[in-house]
Amino acid sequence: MLTRQYKKRNTGAAILPLMAAAFLTYFGFHAWHGEFGIYSSYALVERKAHLETKLAELKAERHRLESRVMLLQDGSIEKDMLDEQARRSLNLTKPDEITIIR
Length: 102
Description:
The chain has 102 residues and is an all-alpha fold. Helices cover 68% and strands 0% of the residues.
């Protein structure tokens, strides 16, 4: 009669913890670096702050332009604005004037 003797291997007991560690690593990585992860949320907050400052600058520019347009409306046109626009379009100055080009 033959008897076979086998060593008992512990590899089966390590498979489940290794698979769980792999899944946790995968989802943990994507929770940090994913499109909607923690790291991306910091980038979105920075971008939001940048865009809000840009919006404030654009609103100030728009307000400045609207105030200049109000000076050029029919019935309320100011002589200074008319003179400035005419000189700019005709490229004319008086001999005793100093021209500052922006």
